[in-house]
Design brief:
GO molecular function: unfolded protein binding
Strand content: 35-45%
CATH class: Alpha Beta
Distance between the termini: 55 Å
InterPro entries: SecB, SecB-like_sf
CATH superfamily: SecB-like
Pfam families: SecB
Strand order of the largest sheet: 1-4-3-2
Order of helices and strands: HEEEEHH
Subcellular location: Cytoplasm
Radius of gyration: 22 Å
Number of strands: 4
Organism: Denitratimonas tolerans
Length: 171
């Protein structure tokens, strides 16, 4: 037992400096817009609104182990073929990632970062829609793990087709 404790303690000290780190430095709105091009006439329209939600994500390196992740959420509402509103927000965050291999870094940027940013983007969209005079709209939770897994599968299929230049599809 004493040997296990000594080995565990001795092993913990050197690893402390090499522990993988994932930290959120800042969350901010990079861009936000709301348009109601057919107001005020659209408020008199009757019918079932059609909603279209689009998501996008960009990752940019800012320095050694520092990344900006921008989650773009766009919500378009049409009523009787006319645009009622368009709400879009680019919710961004700066993340520090150190001590992870490339695969885990990619996974963190593709899953954990957008999961962190999403509640802020969702709230901004909800506030803009309601402040624009429309009924409140709350975006349902998004499974970014599933989206990332699908993206990873597509990348792997693409790389399998272009064995000689794996980065050709990313240029």
């Amino acid at each position: 037992m004493a040997d296990e404790t000594a080995n565990g303690a001795a092993g913990a000290a050197p690893e402390a400096g090499n522990q993988p780190q994932f930290a959120l430095q800042r969350i901010y709105i990079k861009d936000a817009s709301f348009e109601a091009p057919n107001a005020p006439q659209v408020f008199q329209e009757q019918g079932q609104p059609e909603l279209q939600l689009n998501l996008g994500q960009k990752v940019a390196g800012l320095g050694e182990g520092v990344f900006e992740v921008v989650l773009t959420v766009s919500l378009t509402c049409t009523l009787n073929g006319k645009n009622a509103y368009l709400a879009e927000v680019q919710q961004a965050g700066i993340f520090t990632i150190a001590g992870f291999d490339a695969q885990n870094t990619d996974a963190l940027l593709g899953t954990y970062a957008p999961n962190t940013l999403f509640p802020y983007a969702r709230q901004q969209i909800a506030d803009m829609v309601q402040n624009g005079g429309f009924p409140p709209f709350l975006i349902q939770p998004i499974n970014f793990d599933q989206i990332y897994a699908e993206s990873l599968r597509r990348r792997q299929q693409g790389e399998g087709q272009t064995d000689t230049t794996p980065d050709a599809g990313h240029a």
